[in-house]
Design goal:
This protein is of the alpha+beta class. 17% of the residues lie in helices and 47% in strands.
Amino acid sequence: MNKFLTLTLFVFCLCFNSNAQDKKAKTLLSEVTSKIKSFNNISIDFKYSLNNSKENINQESKGNVVLQGNKYVLNFMGVTKIFDGKKTYTIVPEDEEITISNMNDSDEKAITPNKMLTFFNNGYKFTWDILQNSKGRKIQYIKLTPSNNKDQRKEILLGIDIQTKTINNLIEIGKNGTKTILTVNSFKTNQTLSKNQFTFVATKYPNYYINKLD
C-alpha cells in the first residue's frame, strides 16, 4: 500500500509540475504576442543558418525585414520581397525578374515575415524548456511541437529574451534531420518609415521581366 501511495503521489507531482510549466509557457508566449502588437513597426536584422549533416548541407546567410501590421519588406539571399497587404512582389536582381502574386494564406505551416513573431499562437503544443545566458541576456526556450502529425517539422525551439519579451532566436528541427536557426542580431521598433516603404514602384526596374500570377 505504501509503495502504491508513493507511486501515486509521484505521478501526481509529475502531472502537476507539467501543467504548471505549460501554463508558464502559455503566459510567456502571451506576453510576447502583446509586446509585439504594441509596436507600430519593427525592423530586424537576422542571421539564418541551415544544416543537414546527412546531406552534407551547411549554409549561412544574413537578411533584414521591416514589418508593419501585415505588410513587410524582406531582403534575404539576394532577393527582395514586398507585401503591401494585397499583393506580394518578389524581386530577383540576378535574373532581372519580378513576380507579382496575390496574397496566399493557404500554407498555414509557413512562417512568413508578417507572422514570424506570432506564428506560435496556432497549431502547436508548447512546453517550458531550458534557460540560457547569451551575451548577458537570459533566454528562455519554449519547445513547440506541431499538432499535425503530418508536419515535417519535429519541433521548434523558440528563444525568448526574458527582459524585453521579444524573440531572440528560433531553432527548427525537421524530421529528416535538417536544422535551421534564425538569430535576431538587431531589433528596432517604431522607426520613422518612408510613406512608400511597402509600395512597389515599377519604374525602379525598367528592364525587368514582370511575371504576374493569378
